[in-house]
C-alpha cells in the first residue's frame, strides 16, 4: 500500500514542534517493527520533500538510521539490518548526495572501552528505571544466570542506547517505549516500564500520547492487528494522560 503525503502529514501532526521534532523516527520504527521496510523509503521521500536545506536532510537521515539501529535490539536484529538497508537503498535512489555523506561515517561506538560502556550503560539504565534499577537488574540476572543484566548494561545500554550524538536520551527513551507498544502481546510489562522510563527522561503527555497515536494510525491505515489483550494489562497507559 502506498502512503500519501496527506497521511504522513497526519502522522507528523501527532507531535508538538513538528518543524524540528523527530516524528519520522517513530514512524520508521513502526514500519520496521511490522516488517514494512518498503515504507521506510516512502517515509524518507516525504521527509526530504519537506526539508529544504541539504544540511538538515543529512541530520534527519542520520537520526532515522540511528533510530532503526537502536530499535533493532527491541524488535529484532534481522529487522534492524533490513530497515537500515531499506533506508540506504532509498537514499541511493532519491538522495545520492546525502548517502555519499553518510557513507563517510565511521562507527560512533568502535573506540569505546569496556569500562566506558559499563559506566555510561549503568548511568543511562539508572535514568530510565530510577529507584527500580537494582530490582530490574536483579530480576534479569536471576532469570539468565547473570547474562541478561550484563548484556543490558554493557551492550544494550552502554554500547547502543547511551550514544546521544544523533538521538538523545529523551528521543531514545520514547523510541524504546514505542518499540514495546508496537510489539504488543507479552511485552506489555516492558512497554509499561519504558513508558515510565521515557517520562523519567523528559517525555510528557504530548510526546507519549503522540507516539501512541502515530502507531495506532499506522496500524489502522495498514490493517495491522496487534494483540493488546487482555485490556487490563494495558490500563497503565491512562497514566500518561495526567503528565
Descriptive notes:
The protein is mostly helical. The protein has 2 domains: 18-108 and 163-242, no CATH class; 111-162, no CATH class. It contains 12 helices and no strands. The protein has helices spanning 5-12, 23-33, 38-49, 54-75, 77-94, 96-102, 114-129, 133-144, 147-161, 169-183, 188-200, 205-222. α2 packs antiparallel against α3. The longest helix is centred in the N-terminal third of the chain and has 22 residues, at 54-75. The termini are far apart. The model has no long low-confidence stretch (mean pLDDT 96).
**Total DSSP E strands:** 0
**Looking at the structure, what is the overall shape?**
globular
Tell me the series of helices and strands, N- to C-terminal.
Answer: HHHHHHHHHHHH
Instruction: Give the total of domains.
Output: 2
Q: Termini, distance in Å?
A: 36 Å
How much is the average pLDDT? 96
Helix count from the secondary structure assignment: 12
State the helical fraction.
55-70%
Radius of gyration: 18 Å
Strand coverage percent: under 5%
Flag low-confidence runs. none
Largest sheet: none
- Going by helix content, strand content and strand pairing, the class is mainly alpha
A few lines on this structure:
By secondary structure, this protein is mainly α. Helices cover 69% and strands 0% of the residues.
Give descriptors for this structure:
mainly alpha; 2 domains; PTS1_Protein; AhpD-like
Topology of helices and strands:
Blueprint: H1 5-12, H2 23-33, H3 38-49, H4 54-75, H5 77-94, H6 96-102, H7 114-129, H8 133-144, H9 147-161, H10 169-183, H11 188-200, H12 205-222
